[in-house]
Amino acid sequence: MKFDSNTVKLACSKTDSIIKKYGEKRRYRKIVTVVVVILIIAVIYIFVPRFFNPRNLKNILVQSSTLGLMAIGMTLVYLTGGMDLSIPSVMALSGIIGAILMQSGVNPVIAAIITILAGGAVGAINGLSVSALKMIPFVVTLAMMQVMSGVSTWITNSVSVVVPLSYINIVLFKIAGLPLPVYIFIVITAISTFLCKSTLSGRWLYAVGINMNSAKVCKIPADRIVFFTYVFSGSLAGVTGILLTARLGAAGPLMGSSNVILDVMSAAVVGGVSIYGGVGSPLGAALGAVIITVLNNVLNLLRVDFFPAQVIKGVLIIVFVALDSFRRKK
Amino acid sequence: MKKLVGVLMLILIVSTGVVFAGGQQEQKDDGKFVVGVSWDEKSIPLIQAWEDYMIVEAEANGPGNGLDFEFIINVADLDPTRQAANIEDLIQQDVDVILARAKDGAAIGSSIRAAHDAGIPFIVFDRKSLTEEQGDAYVGGDGYSQGRSTAEALASMLKDKGITGQCIEVMGDLKDNNAVLRSQAVNEVAKETGAFEIVTQVPTEWDPQKFLSGITNALQAYPEADCIYLASDFAWSAVQAALETHGRYKKVGEEGHIIMASCDLFPDALVAMEGGYLDISTTWDAYLHAKALVEVLIAIGTGADLDYGEDGYLVPGRLVLPETLGAMDNIWSRDYADWTNSK
Predict the structure, then answer these.
(1) pLDDT value for A22
(2) Burial (0-12, 13-18, 19+ Cβ within 10 Å), A158
(3) Which of A153, A322, B5, B62 could form an SS bridge with B69, CB 3.0 to 4.6 Å?
(4) Residues of chain A contacting B75 with CB distance shorter than 8 Å
């Protein structure tokens, strides 16, 4: 299909103005997120003073880091209008591969690099399936989740692979009282937010998510952008696999249980990322991960029973998705 | 970028301000002995039974030992990562002791280490830690004695009938230590007594679907089989379906009855025993497990020595036969529902 130059200019200027409009909306959304965080902190201060124990705050940051990294990966995929349900199972398989390599005497640094590459490779398969073969992201990544889960169980016989203490000590090494995963989380949040907001590729990402066809008309390499978001998501799943394996002291198929994907999606959605594409940022998803972790932590500290806690979390997610849908209609 | 830094700074300032302005810590209730419980799941009634029996036992026996028990309970929903986070949350609450049923025996080690770093004793329950970190005590059922109890009763029954049994062994998940021990026990009893031989072993990985297909195929291959040993009867409905397929689901005394011997006595199996379809079982005793747990908790709370074998505090099951079932107390699969309703 060919378009004359006037049509292309019109489409591109429209896309550009939509992106600017969304940019303004994003600013408001971020302010709203920050206000929500402050309100939550105030409420918690009144009802759960134990929450502010520095040890607990550190604990929350550590717990948020792994969830946050997966949520950032999911966010980039969401921004293009896609979905990656395979993140937890890719994370588990990557961690298992790294753990098996270490058990067989491979240097932990090399094992960690291979872990990330393994995640990226699975992401590349997802990306190719969606961008080149035009397969539906939900179906592709759901199937990939099943495949990864099967492979993890197959190669481990369902028995988790224990990693050496030296590896745990390296990955959980503390700087100024905070373990390394927290810094990795902050750095990746900052870099990915910068890439999304302040670079041409980032602009393309939003353009693809807002309207794929318009983006293609504007000569944006939409398929390549979509492909790389899945590779990025898979690679971050690999990074998470490294961190979580160290935290648990072992890697096994159960690490990628289906419950994890709900937390990842919740973190992104609560952080203002739209599941319909084109809206949100990695910083928002990172904040969303902190909010989800805080919610779990506070429910535990408040000694809320398991089943009501499930209901509360589920309702919260429904509310945020409803708000997103409502905003989009407006 | 400026905005990004601004947002991060704002959150940092607010958090830090609140932390240092507040800093007030909730004090643990005076005199309470707080037990943090981390369940891996709560989708099966056995776990709720453990919990309820444990609380009642603690309330009954704590005061006499100078302990006023309080329980903080969380559930990991089958996710080892969530369980690690839940246990970290229990540590934040300065509990006096942590008790956990591990979702992943290899991943629980890091939680045990974290608890010990915080000076909190750790009890591993029902599933052992597969790491070097073993916790301060292990409490669980004795899979070997349970399997042996059932197998010996089966051998005795066959001897009384004057026949050498041709038995199908339905195994559990051989990655589960209890399944391995139950299999070991029945094979040892078969060799020692000569009362029965295992004609085939059916692996199930604790999957009800495999109970159904495995038993169906085994009965097809060995129609002469006259007894079945079940490593667990939790999937009784699948067992029943397989027997029905071959027309072998018959009561004791009916033509074609196959002698059924099981471990656990889950609710469906209990109904089957009451109906005359299950001949022998040995309990996986929720009540006795809870009682043992409370004894260990009291020992930790009072600083008494933990006196048990190197394998941990292992609770044997109780042999149940149709004629003894009615007279036995605290069979959780029979009494628990009534007990909770009466509370």
Answers:
(1) 61
(2) middle
(3) B62
(4) 306
**Could you give the percent of chain B with pLDDT greater than 70?**
90
Q: Which two tokens stand for residue B149?
A: 């109890």
Contacts of B77 in chain A (CB under 8 A): 259, 306, 310
Residue B19 scores a pLDDT above 50:
no
Q: How far is the CA of A80 from the CAs of A1, A85, A202, A274, in angstroms?
A: 22, 15, 11, 10
DSSP assignment letter at B29: P
Beta bridge partners of B33: B69
Q: What whole-number percentage of chain A has pLDDT above 70?
A: 90
Beta-strand relationship, A250-251 and A161-162 = antiparallel
Whether the predicted pLDDT of A227 surpasses 70: yes
B73 interfacial to chain A (CB closer than 8 Å): yes
pLDDT tens digits for range A277-304: 899 999 999 999 998 998 889 888 888 8
Q: Using one digit for the tens of pLDDT, what is the confidence trace for B33-56? A: 999 999 998 877 889 999 999 999
CA distance A133 to chain B (A): 34
Residue A153 CB neighbours (<10 A): 17
The pLDDT tens digits for B218-249 are 999 999 999 999 999 999 999 999 999 999 99
State how far the Cα of A231 lies from the Cα of A229, in Å rounded to an integer. 5
Q: How many CB pairs under 8 A join A and B?
A: 147
Distance CA B331, CA B175 (A): 28
- Judge whether B332 lies within some domain: no
Query: Residue B323 falls within a domain, yes or no?
Result: no
Enumerate the β-bridge partners of residue B228: B168, B260
Q: Is the pLDDT of residue A102 over 90?
A: yes
Out of A50, A66, A306, closest to residue B26 by CB: A50
Quick one: B130 and B248 in the same domain? no
Nearest residue, CB atoms, B110 vs list A161, A248, A301 = A248
Is residue A3 very low, low, confident or very high in pLDDT (cuts 50, 70, 90)?
low
The whole domain housing A70 covers: 5-329
Asked if A34 and B84 come within 8 Å (Cβ–Cβ), the reply is no
Q: Do A53 and B92 touch (CB under 8 A)?
A: yes
Within an 8 Å CB–CB cutoff, is residue A171 touching chain B? no
**The domain containing residue B56 runs over which residues?**
32-135
Q: Do A254 and B11 touch (CB under 8 A)?
A: no
**Closest Cα to residue A210, out of A15, A13, A29?**
A15
What's the rounded mean pLDDT across residues B138-146? Answer: 93
ipTM of model over 0.90: no
CATH number at residue B71: 3.40.50.2300
